[in-house]
Design a protein that fits this description.
CATH topology: Rossmann fold
CATH class: Alpha Beta
Largest sheet: 8 strands, mixed
CATH superfamily: Alpha/Beta hydrolase fold, catalytic domain
Oligomer: single chain
Helix content: 25-40%
Structural class: alpha/beta
Shape: globular
Number of helices: 10
CATH architecture: 3-Layer(aba) Sandwich
Order of helices and strands: EEEHHEHEHEHHHHEHEH
Strand content: 15-25%
Length: 251
């Protein structure tokens, strides 16, 4: 995988295909492989004539994994996306983020709209505009990730995060640092977005809940629901079809 230094952290990514670029940003405790390669999203986009750039976010996959929360705070994770685009010579690109990647994509929509064309916010819900799950929930997840075993984790959501992180072979301390980082996002600023946006979620995604308020907060945004929950929606053929349809509309 090619790499780029972003603020002292090595970011690994894949670059495949040719044509108009699409940048993909995966979810928490996942990777390029888990979020995009295995479900067939990369292959489908390449087959559709697109140039696909997909990064392993810092703390994940083949990228650097700092254990200091400050390394993930502010706009450091969105800045990694910009660093990859710069290295690849991409001035403007379509963008899709899933879950944590959806929040990163929303941050880029607000901070760097001129670098983006069409944007898909997937696996994210109304929490982006209402304030999310809060510091107490994030601390519970961080503590669960640092726990020696799952046995003593009482918080059901935190225990589920730990189980998912374990099955993907993640660096638990890096993931805990992400949960403890200060990545505040002002969802009110989404009302100033003028890029075409699709909000795409699984109809059974109880982790993020509804996304109607999120779509309504972004001028002209469309909302689409596909079968599946937070972990399975991206595996559905309806998900990939929705992605291809939205991006092809801007070709």
């Amino acid at each position: 995988m090619p790499t780029v230094d972003s603020g002292g952290v090595t970011i690994s990514y894949v670059a495949e295909g040719s044509g108009s670029p699409v940048v993909l940003v995966h979810g928490f405790a996942s990777s390029v492989q888990g979020n995009w390669r295995a479900p067939g999203v990369i292959d489908a986009l390449v087959a559709a004539g697109r140039r696909v750039i997909a990064l392993d976010c810092r703390g994940h996959g083949e990228s650097g994994k700092p254990h200091d929360p400050e390394a993930y705070s502010g706009t450091r994770m969105p800045d990694d996306v910009v660093a990859v685009m710069d290295q690849e010579g991409i001035d403007c690109s379509d963008l899709m983020g899933y879950s944590m990647g959806g929040a990163i994509a929303a941050s880029l929509l607000v901070g760097h709209p001129e670098r983006l064309s069409r944007v898909i916010l997937s696996g994210v819900g109304d929490g982006l505009v209402t304030g999310g799950r809060g510091r107490r929930a994030s601390e519970a997840i961080a503590s669960a990730l640092e726990s020696e075993t799952r046995a003593g984790i009482k918080d059901a959501r935190a225990r589920a995060f730990r189980a998912f992180a374990e099955q993907n072979g993640n660096d638990m301390l890096a993931l805990a640092a992400i949960q403890r980082s200060s990545r505040t996002f002002d969802g009110v600023k989404l009302r100033n977005v003028r890029n075409p946006v699709l909000v795409l979620i699984g109809e059974g995604d109880v982790l993020v809940g509804p996304a109607d308020a999120l779509a309504a907060a972004i001028p002209g945004a469309k909302l689409a629901k596909v079968p599946g929950d937070h972990l399975t929606a991206v595996l559905q053929p309806e998900f990939t079809r929705a992605v291809l349809s939205f991006f092809s509309a801007g070709a």
